Amino acid sequence: MTALTLSTAAAPGLRADALVIGVAKSSGSKGAGLVVAPGAEAVDQAYDGKLAGVLETLGASGSEGEVTKLPAPAGFKAPLVVAVGLGAEPDGEDADAGFDGEALRKAAGVAARALAGSKKAAFALPLADAGDLGAIAEGVLLGAYSFDAYKDNGGQRKNGKAPLAEAALLGAKPRDKAHKAALERATAVSEELNRARDLINTPPNDLNPESFAAIATAAAKEHGIKVQVLDEKALAKGGYGGILGVGAGSAAGPRLVKLTYTHSRNAKHLALVGKGITYDSGGISLKPAGHNETMKCDMSGAAAVFAAVVAAARLGLEVNVTGWLALAENMPSGSATRPGDVLRMFSGKTVEVLNTDAEGRLVLADALWAASQEKPDAIVDVATLTGAMVLALGNRTFGVMANDDAFRAAVVEAAEEVGEASWPMPLPEHLRKGMDSPTADIANMGERMGGGLVAGLFLREFVGEGITWAHLDIAGPAFNESGPFGYTPKGGTGSAVRTLVRLAELTAAGDLG
């Protein structure tokens, strides 16, 4: 990953391949045009206060994600200035607060990606406090991400350039406790989020439930996290019918991985549950052509939970966090679960499987019930669960459902704080009837319309009584099939990792329910 340093150096004298500055669209009260953002004063002064005009001549408008490159002025040791758009300049009541963290995060990410192949860049973006520093650091580390494990040949990169090697964050205070803490947090969260991206991007012939469990075990031991792995025999002995049923058709057996980070006996307990279908063919209910190619990403929920637990441990958060990774490969074969089969779940309930492509809710159901046995203060599950949620919210927003309205609101607010787009969704009681089964306690399918909400209602059936629970359906933002934007790459995104870490922090502070 890109190495980060906090620097008090003046921009002109810092040796680097490029100097990154911010520009924005002028607020309405100042008329249309481009403004140079705080942090770039030295560059503007070297252009005799005419930097905005020069950039406009080059076509810059300050729009979010826009990059304009120009030669550095005389006297600067960096030969190149990279001006990155921040969007609209803060105006009115927001002017004193400066640019929000997400705007800085996106700008830093865009610049870091644009500087791939460079050895060092200096970032002179607006930096008013430790929060801004953390956002910029995250943007750099996430924006510079590149998945090249399958592109290198004897050390020679076949495609593209190496990620930006080093970034100096100007205006930071290396000895300031708040700034050092912000950098530490940004580094831990970003490194683990990028680890989640690596897992999501790994081809399914190399990542199956067993190998995923081995990776989680190695990381857990490195960071003092207790780990327990249930294999096929242990799952059968324990009665985990949902996980076993989904994995029955694959030569790669399923796993349930439990990661336990314990701060103290008296700390609050947050349980995280992740869907980990390492490849989803749909099973006997086979997906049609055109829907299989990206199904390696169906373990994004488990990757997010894994990353969040490790990040919590690295940050030493004063909270107990348990992560449950429900891992299986959903394949068609002579041993696969059939439509019409009835599975007895870990909770004891029976489920009639009407569609084997509605498999994520089956593995989650067992993991949710297992998590409930420990009576945590709250459970949050994360899953690429339904195409219906993508239809409802698009490719960049995840849906949030819960059995408690206040908790649902808190999760949405936490997501907004860290820059992840989410939207509160209901759990309409009238949709529950559609899952009634004549042969089992419940069916795994209900009404087609509102399918994402139906899935949430199914999961609610397997949450222990009296336990606060939320469900994050990240089917849209988990895997980016279009071009990169902001700090988001093409491929696995690591969606929900930052929200889960924030929820752990809020739980530690006693501010979450």
From TrEMBL:
Mn(2+) 1 binds at residues 280, 357, 359. It holds the Pfam family Peptidase_M17_N. SUPFAM superfamilies: Macro domain-like, Zn-dependent exopeptidases. Its EC number is 3.4.11.1, 3.4.11.10. Residues 355-362 form the Cytosol aminopeptidase domain. The active site is at 287, 361. GO terms for molecular function: aminopeptidase activity. Its cofactor is Mn(2+). Coiled coil: none annotated. Presumably involved in the processing and regular turnover of intracellular proteins. Catalyzes the removal of unsubstituted N-terminal amino acids from various peptides. This is Probable cytosol aminopeptidase. The lineage of its organism: Bacteria, Bacillati, Actinomycetota, Actinomycetes, Kitasatosporales.
